[in-house]
Structures are given as C-alpha cells and as structure tokens.
C-alpha cells in the first residue's frame, strides 16, 4: 500500500510511523510539511520545513517521498525553490494548503511547472459550514483549476470535506483524483467516491500524524470494494502518478 497523504510531526515522522507501516503493509509514505507553520508562513519557514522533509527522505529513501509545500504568495522565490526540490532533491509533487485559493492566478506558475514535471499536485480542499478560512479551497476552486489546466494531475484532498457535492463538481474533470483522508470520511464516503468517479480516481491517504493509520485503512476495506478496486485505491493509482514524474 501507499499512503499518499502524510505530514511530518515537527522535523520528523511521528514516532512509530514506519513500524506501523511495516505491520499493516504500507510500503511508502508520501509526506508534506504544513503542520505547525501557520496558515500564511514566511518563505524562510517554508524553506526550513522542506529542508526537514528532505532530511527525512534521505534517511528513509525507500519509505518516504515528499511533496514540496509552497506559499504561492512568495512568487518567484517559491517557484525557484519548487524547481530545486524536484530537480535536485527528487521530491515528487506540489502541495498547496490554505495560504492562497488554488485557482488564484498567483498559483498558475506553480501549476504550469508541475505540469512540465508531470508531478502530482495535492490540494487541501474543505467546505465548512462554519470556520472556513479566508483562502481555504473548496471543490469548486479545484474544479476551476482543473478546467483551466486539463494537463494538471490534481489530488483533491479529503474529498473536500463534503463528498457528495465535491465529487459531483470534479467528476467532469478526469485529471482530478480525490483522496480518502479526513476524519469525517468513512467507508460510505469512499464507496460514493468510487461509484461516481471510478476506482481509478480515488487514492488512499491517512492524514498522519493527526490520524490513525489502521482506522484509515479500515474505512477503505469497509467500503465494499472489489479486490481490483482496492488494489487501485490502495496502491496502483498513486504508483502510476509517481512513475510519471520527470524532472
């Protein structure tokens, strides 16, 4: 299995992550570094967090891959850092969180560079009844981005928090996948996503370290999928995305 949505805990993996992966059969953790930086981090803080991730990747080259997190408001400096992380440090993709809406023109240069690398783009997306952050993307923003950039390989995280409306919005865009992470997401939501998008567009993610790996695997196993669908969701879809990355 591949866990496509993991966060470092401070400068390292949460204790026991790799051991639990061994026990449960997770061969690869794909990480980013947004936790603890604040919603609108400085360039120096982002760069240090990506340095931390690279150090973890070097310690565990067969078990940990990395998305480069960027704050698009940092412009050319952030774009150059993204290029360096992909080309020199072998990170595999781009991570967008809540510093900027994902369809803001500030984001376009990063998407275009990710397209050139054929790198997956993991986008935090969540639609809240209360407490929506000012620049927190929803499925509607992801759909706008996918419409503008059909070549982009986008993973909409957390099924955007409201699976039924979210998958309907992105269903017309075959370049959009969704992941299974998020505590409100259960087996029923995984089943809905697979039935509406197809198993080839759903990817397993746990949201470690703030989640339980076993229970996140369990909700996919409890979704009533066929063996072939499980293989796609739990490993093959993400494996295909990773094989396409070219710096």
What does this structure look like?
- The chain has nine helices and eight strands.
- It starts with a strand and ends with a helix.
- An eight-stranded parallel beta sheet has the order 1-2-3-4-5-6-7-8.
- Helix 3 runs parallel beside helix 4, helix 6 runs parallel beside helix 7 and helix 7 (187-197) crosses helix 8.
- It has helices spanning 17-24, 43-59, 75-87, 108-117, 139-148, 163-170, 187-197, 213-221, 227-243, and strands at 2-7, 28-32, 64-69, 93-96, 121-123, 154-156, 176-179, 202-203.
- The mean pLDDT is 96.
- By secondary structure, it is of the alpha/beta class.
- It is globular, with a radius of gyration of 16 Å.
Helix/strand structural class: alpha/beta
Average per-residue pLDDT, rounded, comes to 96
Cα-atom Rg, whole angstroms? Answer: 16 Å
Spatial strand arrangement across the major sheet = 1-2-3-4-5-6-7-8
Topology:
Blueprint: E1 2-7, H1 17-24, E2 28-32, H2 43-59, E3 64-69, H3 75-87, E4 93-96, H4 108-117, E5 121-123, H5 139-148, E6 154-156, H6 163-170, E7 176-179, H7 187-197, E8 202-203, H8 213-221, H9 227-243
Concise description?
The chain has helices at residues 17-24, 43-59, 75-87, 108-117, 139-148, 163-170, 187-197, 213-221, 227-243; strands at residues 2-7, 28-32, 64-69, 93-96, 121-123, 154-156, 176-179, 202-203.
